[in-house]
Amino acid sequence: MTTPSQLAGDPRPRGLGAHPWFICLLCAFLLAGLFSIRKINDADLGFHLAAGRWIVENHRVPSNDTFTYTVADHEYLDMEWLYQAALYLEYLIGGYSLLSLTHALWALLAFYLLWIRLRGTGVSYSLAVLIFILSLAACEPRFRVRPEILTWVLLGSMLWILESRLERRRDLLFLLPWIQWLWVQTEGLFFIGWAVMGTYCLSTLLSPQKTDVKLIRTSAIASVLCLLNPYFTRGFLFPFSFLSSLGSTDVFRYAVEEFQGPWSFHSAPGTPAPLYLFFYKAFCLFLGTGLVATFRNRKIHEWLLALFFFSLSAFAVRNIPLFLLSCAPLAAAVWGSAQWSWWGKFRDSFLPRPATAWALALCLLGFSARILTNAHYVSNRLTDRFGLGLD
User: Model pTM?
Assistant: First the structure.
């Protein structure tokens, strides 16, 4: 069995089959699965299913807002058409339960990609597990049957490819255009892919080392491929019109809770403050402190990614998972290299201990039990419930 000292010093420890920190990781994935399996209570589902049915029956994408009878003649861009068509076909095959199950699998895939990227940082196993759990806890309210789950997967895939390229582990850049093309057909947040590729391109252009011409060329091709959508240039420019509409009015923030900013979030009267906001703010403090402490060792793309995704998360609580899923490996890297003496003792002596892992695993199992029995949702006055299918 791997010893605690080996776990602290070996970025890829061997013989982890029965090690407490591996058990702790399994408990974290169990909790992620339970977060994912919740009854559908999202009102947007009806709209997505109706749009998918229209697309399948008419064999084309809508060009007018046929779902709002008062403005049926208004232009409408459905940038989620592929997701909606697939959603409707899934519904025909397996009903609401299949929709719950497939989205749970997508969410688990997103967090598996996060775990792979955390291990790629080379930090100790115990620190990687701890940051994984923190990220999972902050993302808890967004495990829903929504197209943003696909954005989690596509974002994680793109970052894994770029990080692998940077560390010279593997060259999978040829996948970037395919990821970006799929993104533009399934979710209006596809501009995030531009931002991610742009930060890495800018970093290599400003680096004293040789410019990665292949990365720049592939990123340009991936961006141009976004024109291959049903609406051509109008679809390509959709993110700009969408963001400008959000910035011009506060109606979304007043009417929809998920558009509230996490730093100015106000719970409904009689409702306790959401627990996930505590984990989100703790992560912000954790990452910010680590970046300041190791600023001499940070690269340009790391600063840009942290700034971009933090800004997105500060704008609306719905964007918190994007911040965590993108920047958790960066947090692991900065704290894995921090040189404070007190932190070194904690990281290399206390954190890897089996007793620490067992205590954390018991907490995760206890919280999992609260999810299974719906105690967590009821005590926090949430409308979510554990299970498959429609609530």
Answer: 0.91
